[in-house]
Request: fold
Amino acid sequence: MCLAPQDDDIINRLTPMPTDYSPHPEHHFTFGLWTVGNVGRDPFGDPVRAALSPTRIVQQLASLGAYGVNLHDNDLVPRDASATDRDRIVREFKNALADTGMKVPMATTNLFGDPVFRDGAFTSNDARVRAYALQKTMHSIDLGVELGAETYVFWGGREGVETNAAKDPQESIKWFRDAINFLCEYVRAQGYTLKFALEPKPNEPRGDIFLPTIGHMLAFIYTLDHPDMVGLNPEVAHDTMAGLDFSHGVAQALEAGKLFHIDLNAQKPGRFDQDLRFGSEDLKGAFFLVKLIEDAKWPGMRHFDSHAYRTEDEQGVWDFAAGSMRTYLILKEKVAHFNADADIQSLRDELRSRGGNPHIVPKFSALSGRELKGRAFDLDTMRAQGYAYERLDQLTMEILLGVR
Ligand code: GLT
Ligand code: MN
Ligand code: MN
Reply:
C-alpha cells in the first residue's frame, strides 16, 4: 500500500515511542514505609485504614515493580521497643528484603512525633532535647546503614517557631549547623559512606520552619564543616506550598551537584501539605520536572513521598502506588516525544541561535569591556521581535493532552 506523505509523518512520529508503562526495579522507584503505610489520620479525623506491617509493604511494593522502601527509625522499630524486639523486627524486615530483592536506599529519623520534640529537635530551646535528638539520630543512622541505606534525610519539621519571641533565628541556625556537623563527624568516625540530604519546607507542622526553601538550604550547606557530604532532598509539595516553581529549585540543586534525593508528589499552591499522588496536580509542572531529571540522566532514586486520599481503603493505597509510578513513566515517554518533535526542536534551535555567535557576549577583559562599551546594537530590530513561546507552549500542551 502506498502511504500519503501525511501518513508517513504520523508513523514516524509514533514508532519510536514505547507503550509499556509497567514499573520495574531498574526504574529506581521507591516509597517511604510512612507513605503507603499512611493510615489517613488528619488534624480533624481518626485513622481510616488499618496499619500495614513493614514486611507486607515490602512484599506488595515489590510485586508492583518498585525498587525499594525508605524509612524513619520508628516506621520500623516502635519508640518503646526493647533491644530484643528491635533485633527481631529488623531480622524479619531484612528477610522480607532478601526474599523480594527490595532495597532500602534512604533512611531518616523521626524527630517530630514524640512530644519531647514539640519545640524542635536540633533547634529546641532545651539543650537536653538537642542532645537527645543527636543520640536518637546516631542510633537511627546505625539502623539505616545496617539496612544498606546510602542517603540519610533530614526533614526539620519541628525546627521552627510560632512566635519570633521564642527563639533567636541566628542562634537556631547555629544550633542546626552544630547538629549536622556533629553527625557528619559521627558518620566519618564510624567509617560509613553515607551522604546527608536536607529537606526544606516553609511551614507545617510549625508556623514557620527554619531554612524554608531549596535556596536557603543550599546556602546553609556551604557553611558546614563537610559540605561535600551534604546535599538536598527537595519535595514538590513543599516548594509548591510557597508558590515557587519546583523545577527551578531542583535545577539549581542539580547544577550545584547537590541533588542527592528527591520527594515526588503533587500539591495545589497555597494549601496545607497535601502529599498527593505524583502528577495528579499541575501536570505541566510534573512534565518539566521529569524532563529535567531525565534529560540530566540524574542517577538518584525516584522516591514518592505522598499518600493515598483519605477516602481510600487498602486497594486504593496500591492503586495510588501503582499510579504514581505509571504516571512518571508516561511523562518520561512524553519527554522523549517532546525531545523528538521536529517543530518543537526547530523552535528551540531558533531561540538558541538568536543573535548569532554566542561569543558576542564576551568574558570580561579590559579589551572586551572596552569593545562592548562602544558596540552599536540594532535595538529597533531587537525590540520588535517576538519569541514564539505561545506556539511552543501550545505544542507542549498538545503533547501532554495526547493529540500530538
Ligand atoms: C514526613 C514529611 C516529609 C518528609 C519525611 C521525612 S516525613 O512525612 O511530611 O516531607 O520527607 O522525614
Ligand atoms: Mn518529604
Ligand atoms: Mn510533604
In short: Residues 34, 72, 108, 153, 155, 199, 235, 263, 273, 305 surround 5-thio-alpha-D-glucopyranose (ligand 1) (CB under 6 Å). Confidence is low (pLDDT under 50) at residues 1-5. DSSP finds 16 helices and ten strands in the chain.
